[in-house]
Amino acid sequence: MQRRDFLKLSSLAFAAPRLRAQAPGQMAMPSAPAAAPPGPPADITLKISPVTVELAPERILSTIGYNGMAPGPILRMKEGKPTIVDVINATDVPELVHWHGLVIPAEVDGVDEEGTPVVPAQSRRRYQFAPKPAGSRWYHSHAMAESDLHKGAYTGQFGFLIIDGADPGQYDQEIFLALRDWEPFFTTQLMDTDEQGQVDPMPEKPDVSKMNTNANGFEVTSITYSINDKSLGAGEPIRVKQGQRILLRILNASAIENRRLALPGHKFQVVALDGNPVPTPTAVETLFIGAGERIDAIVEMNNPGVWILGETADQVREAGMGILVEYANQHKTPLWKAPSTLRWDYSVFANAASAKAPDHTIEMLFEKIPSGSGKFNTWLVNGKPYPHENEFVLTQGQRYRLVFRNRTDDAHPMHLHRHNLELTEINGKAISGLFKDTVVVPMYGRATVDFTADQPGLTLFHCHIQNHMDFGFKALFRYA
Fold first, then answer.
1. Which of 59, 283, 296, 416 can bridge 55 by disulfide, Cβ–Cβ 3.0-4.6 Å?
2. What distance in Å separates the CA atoms of residue 258 and residue 116, rounded to the nearest whole number?
């Protein structure tokens, strides 16, 4: 059975006479610690344990989450203020909590490859750090999964982390929306929609005669979706009033795929990407958000009715990845209308001027060996899979330019830990001023990012799609 057939069947399971969706942002704050360790009390306690997620009244899943829920509690910290987080691991396997987008030391970043100590099974660990920079960040498990789809980012271990200090502008409501796929399974039959609506050049597309045409290995997909913990057809809507300005904090918490979102009759005024204010806030009809990315957008509520905010792919939206937006005193049938464009372009949010020249340039070529890891594909950086011993060595204080050359037919969300990335070129177009921690490199495309080597210690670089990272698509940067 092809993936499209799975999706059609799944959409029927979520059909309902009257669509309802979840009330966003109603996730509880962390509970008190069960037993405080020596020293000062924790500011936040996270407990990792089995949880159930009721996506719909007849669709209840079992997974691993934080503080009895998935997504986990919305955490808020103040920029630069020392914070203590106690993590209690009530499961039978070691775990790691990664603070995605924070510029913090490697020993608390939550990554085994960088030397962060794990949280042992049936034990606890204390994280202490001064969070920065301000903006929309998130936290999640950074455990390897490989062939176990009940581990790592496939579980419900994820949640929003807001570092207060940045000004997103004036708004009337703050809404948190985490995009999620559940019940993953292996398949060789994938329908990748990353290229839909794109007319970009493909400067890195190999000559057809040189492309590897071997049978593709197993990758991961899903047919069960939600926004936060509810699928379209369950829960409460986002309730708004005409004239309000709504701040949407959107996270793609998927371990599997990049996503597109639209809200018919409205536009998204993008004010921040990955929590960092953009140089040129711009209104767009469609959002494209890679796995691990965040988008902060202001929406002017000026079109009364009941609308479906959701994935632009019909099968995915109808199978759960949607939520209602309901104006006050409106009792109409929920409406979905396909957007006029699916195009997404980082450059419209950036400065048109070129960035300053770097001290060093590092070329990074991304390739895939179909079925190179037995049943699974192998992913290569510069001709080899992880670990790249002593290949990427940095000198403290120097400015580096990474040139990502994607020779594969996937769009890859690339994440560099513990550093801010300035996107300086996308498919040959020079830009500047757009800072991110995760950058989607288009299929057969090229992206260039600059960063300053100012965080000594080991630094992990990887694709944020779990299956790709697990099978070679990562590297360690070291300081000389």
1. 59
2. 28
What single-letter DSSP state applies at residue 40?
S
For 197-225, what is each residue's pLDDT tens digit? Answer: 667 788 888 876 555 556 789 999 999 99
Instruction: Tell me which architecture the domain covering 176-347 has in CATH.
Output: Sandwich (2.60)
What type of residue sits at position 167? D
Cα angle 381, 464, 428 (rounded to 5 degrees) comes to 60
CB count within 10 Å of CB 214 equals 11
**Gap between the terminal Cα atoms of the chain:** 52
CA distances from 280 to 246, 349, 351, 426, 468 (A): 19, 5, 7, 16, 32
Which superfamily does 26-167 belong to? Cupredoxins -  blue copper proteins (2.60.40.420)
C-beta of residue 98 within 8 angstroms of C-beta of residue 55: no
- Tell whether the model's pLDDT for residue 444 goes beyond 70: yes
How large is the average pLDDT for residues 108-117? 97
User: Which CATH number applies to 360-479: 3.30.43.10, 3.40.50.2300, 2.40.50.140, 2.60.40.420?
Assistant: 2.60.40.420
Domain boundaries of the chain, sorted by first residue: 26-167, 176-347, 360-479
Cβ contact 421:435 at 8 Å? yes
pLDDT band at 4 (very low <50, low <70, confident <90, very high): very low
pLDDT digits (tens, 9 = 90+) for 264-305: 999 999 999 999 999 999 999 999 999 999 999 999 999 999
Q: Are strands 83-89 and 123-129 parallel, antiparallel or unpaired?
A: antiparallel
Phi, psi of 131 (to 5 degrees): -70, 135
| Token output for 354 | 């070129």
Calpha distance 69→216 (Å, rounded): 36
Position 173 scores a pLDDT of: 97
d(CA 409, CA 419): 27
- If residue 6 lies in a helix (H) or strand (E), which one and from where to where? helix 3-13
Contact assessment for residue 30 and residue 67, using Cβ atoms and an 8 Å cutoff: yes
Which pair of structure tokens corresponds to residue 405? 């050359």
Quote the DSSP letter at residue 354. Answer: P
Q: Is the distance from CB of 369 to CB of 330 less than 8 angstroms? A: no
**Beta strands 245-252 and 173-182, pairing class:** parallel
Contact 53, 66 (CB under 8 A): no
Q: Rounded CA gap, 201 and 189, in Å?
A: 26
> Which residues, in sequence order, are bridge partners of residue 46?
87
Look at residue 34 and tell me whether its pLDDT is greater than 60. no
The overall pTM is greater than 0.85? yes
Helix (H) / strand (E) element for 78: namely strand 75-78
User: Would you say 334 and 307 are in contact if contact means Cβ atoms under 8 Å apart?
Assistant: yes
Q: Which residue in 452, 22, 409 sits closest to 192, CA to CA?
A: 409
The answer to whether domain 176-347 and domain 360-479 are alike in fold is: yes
